Inverse folding.
């Protein structure tokens, strides 16, 4: 309080003039700048949101176009593929043969290895071996596997289009579909 | 001296102080206005971009539905059974299932329609449609209705898809027969089968980069067609 009073200067006309200290001015300016910054941020958030929405729309368009040409431009085959639309938009395509829910999955290499080990070690593994062994396909006509006679089969296709927005976050649009392709 | 003492006693502002304060205030208001103006303009620009991209999305959905319904009709009485599909780099003519909106406006109950996708004057990408004349031998009967016609009779109104188009290109993917490898082409006419994909590149003067759009033709030539791994085309079974 005393320091404040000391800042007051007496003029010849017997009037006390009290000004602001530099510190006070600085604090006030900083507060103003902060307030302005927050206001501007509100604007930029809106603009950024619009930009993110735009990129999502573009990614969806790219993904649908890519999905339309999958299996037509190139022969459909199982595997993972990837590529780049442009500097910012990249795609990852995964093609898997469709396994229906009532068809038992084929044992993975790990399971096959475990199976081989179990069989080699003796009788302990033989009981589990029967459960792991692939069962007969459900679509059979007598002893004939009908599925194997078809030239085509169903493929599950998953396409992801990944892109980066200005805030540095990686975002993606993922589309899933099924297509008929050759049985290889 | 007398007035000065009164002024000091009433603790008022001098004219200079007032002017200075007003000037500073004006400068600050100006700066704040400029800052807000920039913000509002950025906001508007974002708004316009969202509007444009959603418009593109709509155009894409519309064309995806249109091209998904391209119908493999063949012209009658020509030396070879050419399919009713004529495409160049800038114009595309095809026969497709009549859209419900068009059918309703035309009093028709359904059937097929002629359609032409082309750039008309003013840089407008437009889709002209017309009910299909089953006796037709080619697309000559398909003409864009003039403005007078639009006012008097009511043909199926053309659809204005995109305006301010600066560049526009159509490509076609497919194999012309069972022994050729399918490729992208600039032209598709006088062939016995439909292409399998249509690719569209459109640039507008607004300069937003619009992705290249690829559309698949979905209507097969016959039920139980045989899909060829070589041509990726579902064609008729050999008899």
């Amino acid at each position: 309080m005393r320091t404040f009073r000391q800042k007051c200067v007496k003029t010849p006309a017997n009037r006390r003039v009290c000004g602001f200290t530099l510190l006070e001015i600085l604090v006030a300016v900083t507060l103003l700048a902060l307030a302005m910054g927050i206001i501007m941020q509100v604007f930029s958030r809106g603009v950024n949101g619009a930009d993110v929405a735009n990129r999502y729309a573009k990614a969806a368009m790219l993904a649908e176009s890519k999905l339309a040409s999958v299996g037509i431009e190139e022969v459909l085959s199982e595997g993972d593929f990837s590529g780049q639309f442009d500097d910012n938009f990249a795609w990852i395509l995964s093609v898997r043969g469709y396994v229906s829910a009532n068809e038992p999955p084929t044992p993975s290499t790990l399971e096959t290895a475990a199976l081989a080990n179990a069989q080699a070690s003796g009788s302990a593994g033989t009981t589990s071996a029967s459960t792991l062994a692939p069962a007969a396909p459900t679509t059979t006509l007598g002893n004939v596997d009908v599925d194997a006679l078809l030239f085509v089969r169903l493929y599950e296709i998953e396409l992801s289009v990944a892109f980066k927005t200005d805030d540095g976050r990686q975002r993606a649009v993922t589309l899933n579909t099924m297509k008929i392709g050759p049985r290889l | 001296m007398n007035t000065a003492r009164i002024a000091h006693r009433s603790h008022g502002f001098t004219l200079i102080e007032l002017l200075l304060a007003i000037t500073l205030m004006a400068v600050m208001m100006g700066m704040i206005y400029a800052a807000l103006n920039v913000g509002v303009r950025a906001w508007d620009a974002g708004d316009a971009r969202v509007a444009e991209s959603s418009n593109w999305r709509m155009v894409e959905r519309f064309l995806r539905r249109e091209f998904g319904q391209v119908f493999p009709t063949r012209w009658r009485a020509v030396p070879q059974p050419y399919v009713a599909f004529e495409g160049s780099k800038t114009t595309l003519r095809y026969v497709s299932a009549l859209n419900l909106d068009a059918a309703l406006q035309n009093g028709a109950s359904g059937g097929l329609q002629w359609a032409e996708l082309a750039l008309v004057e003013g840089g407008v990408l437009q889709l002209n449609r017309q009910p299909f004349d089953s006796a037709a031998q080619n697309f000559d009967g398909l003409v864009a209705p003039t403005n007078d016609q639009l006012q008097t009779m009511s043909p199926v109104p053309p659809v204005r898809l995109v305006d301010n188009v600066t560049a526009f290109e159509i490509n076609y993917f497919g194999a012309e027969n069972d022994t050729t490898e399918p490729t992208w082409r600039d032209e598709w006419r006088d062939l016995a089968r439909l292409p399998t994909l249509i690719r569209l590149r459109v640039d507008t003067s607004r300069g937003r980069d619009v992705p290249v759009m690829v559309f698949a033709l979905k209507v097969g030539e016959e039920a139980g067609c045989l899909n060829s791994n070589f041509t990726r085309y579902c064609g008729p079974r050999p008899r």
About this structure: Chain B is about 30% helix and 25% strand. The radius of gyration of chain B is 31 Å. Residues 15-68 of chain B form the longest helix (54 residues). Chain B touches chain A through 36 residues (CB under 8 Å).
